[in-house]
Amino acid sequence: MRISQLEGWRVALWGWGSEGRAAWKAIRSRLPQLPLALFCNEVEAADVAGLGDPLLQPRTRVDAEALAAFDIVVKSPGISPYKPEALAAAARGTHFIGGTSLWFGEHADGRTVCVTGTKGKSTTTSLLAHLLRAGGHRTALAGNIGLPLLEVLEPQPVPEFWAIELSSYQTGDVARSGAHPEVAVVLNLFPEHLDWHGSEDRYIEDKLRLVTEARPRTAVLNAADPRLAALELPGSRIIWFNREDGWHLRDDALYRGDDFVFDTAAVPLPGRHNRGNLCAVLAAIEALGVDATPLAPAAMDFRPLPHRLQWLGERDGIGYVNDSISTTPHASLAALDCHRGSPVAILLGGHDRGLDWHGFAERLRAQPPKAVVTMGANGPRIHELLEGEAGEGLFALEAADDLADAVARARRLLGGRGVVLLSPGAPSFGAYRDYTERGRHFAALAGFDPDGISTIPGLGVA
Questions:
Q1: Domains of the chain (ranges plus CATH)?
Q2: For labelling, which of 116, 348, 392, 402 has a CA lying 20 to 30 Å from the CA of 135?
Q3: Annotated binding residue at 123?
Q4: Where is the Mur ligase central domain (predicted)?
């Protein structure tokens, strides 16, 4: 759907975060006289009052009856379409779309590379933009990574390529837009966001809409992921990575088929899984018709993203790693794997989405850290699960009241040597606005400047 097609319909916005504000600005830029309602909380309603837009009317009551009064609701990604009030309104004819759908409606012919996956998608998308720019291609970096697509509705100059990160909340919007990405990359699939999707099966189904329903020209898929390896996509060409006939790693050596390209050991990508995602980036670049081999060494100049296995520095013999974006047990295990061989105190817990931690506990038995400190709403559940291993002396286990207490306990348990690893395996909701705020607080508690560690490089067009 194009923005112009909203004219004549009863339209509301739902959510007033960065995506909601971007949707308002974009609609106003094209349809300045369109009446808009906004479903938001009381604090956001006060903010709206100062905008000077008499045609934007905030509403603080959200139920099925209120939503059903509108033909189209442009909702923010974090709001689940599976909420009872949304399902009831949809059954009565209300059409729910997201800003991603509106953007693709305006850019159906854009040379887009969409990247999704449970973990690694931000780093992969940023690395994609970095390598394309290194090859002299003007590239936009936007989407879930921190710049809503509607914020770059009409960039000047126009980019040659778009590197777009999409969360599982947004992948369906691409399909609903009617546009087809030129390239779609799916990195991996693990259970996540079950509170938003309602079940693991629906999470996988929603995530894969990017390739099963949006029908990209080329799908770049991870051959090492069992679910992805089983996919058949009749409407798309498939390029596999992490397979010996394509881009893959042998230890740290990067190969394209049988051809050695370069040694990735010194590439500033935290974790072998991220170096493996370099293979996805190179496969995506080739899918665009660009020779990727000469661009691969430019990964050496890549600047890692904040809050993703981010080395903050050392204080009094103890190193601090900020992996605040970690919201699944799988991500926490990957973070531990990056620091194998070092004494590690890992900080676990946050908002409880009901994920299963038994697999994490089993892996911890085989590869125990020095200490585990639990915290947050699901901290007690994780603590109870790990008590057996701690009781056998595999690692120290303590429960903290909050992040400040967790950092203090981790310092003491390390005894002046090792790494404090914030990789909570859970969202930050409740205690913090988002993972960025949680990571900034961790940096401050560790004695580092939060403003110095939080900038995402390369957003926008360059």
A1: 3-100 (3.40.50.720), 108-301 (3.40.1190.10), 310-454 (3.90.190.20)
A2: 116
A3: yes
A4: 115-284
Of the candidates 266, 182, 172, 242, the residue with the CA atom closest to the CA atom of residue 212: 172
With b meaning 16 or more CB within 10 Å and e meaning fewer, what string describes 254-275? bbbeeeebbebeebebbbbbbb
Q: In what order do the strands lie in the sheet with 259-263?
A: 247-250, 253-256, 259-263
Would the annotation count 119 as a binding residue? Answer: yes
User: What tokens appear for 411 in the block?
Assistant: 């310092």
- Annotated binding residue 83: no
CA distances from 240 to 1, 187, 223 (A): 32, 10, 6
Question: Got the DSSP string for 310-326?
Answer: EEEEEETTEEEEE-TT-
Q: Which ranges in 142-231 belong to alpha helices (H)?
A: 171-177, 194-197, 200-212, 226-229
Does residue 191 register a pLDDT over 70?
no
pLDDT in tens, 107-145: 999 999 999 998 899 999 999 999 999 999 999 999 999
5-57 pLDDT tens trace: 999 999 999 999 999 999 999 999 999 999 999 999 998 999 898 899 999 99
Residue 454 annotated as binding site: no
Count Cα atoms within 13 angstroms, Cβ side, for 14.
Answer: 27
* Global confidence as pTM: 0.90
Distance CA 366, CA 383 (A): 18
State residue 453's pLDDT score: 86
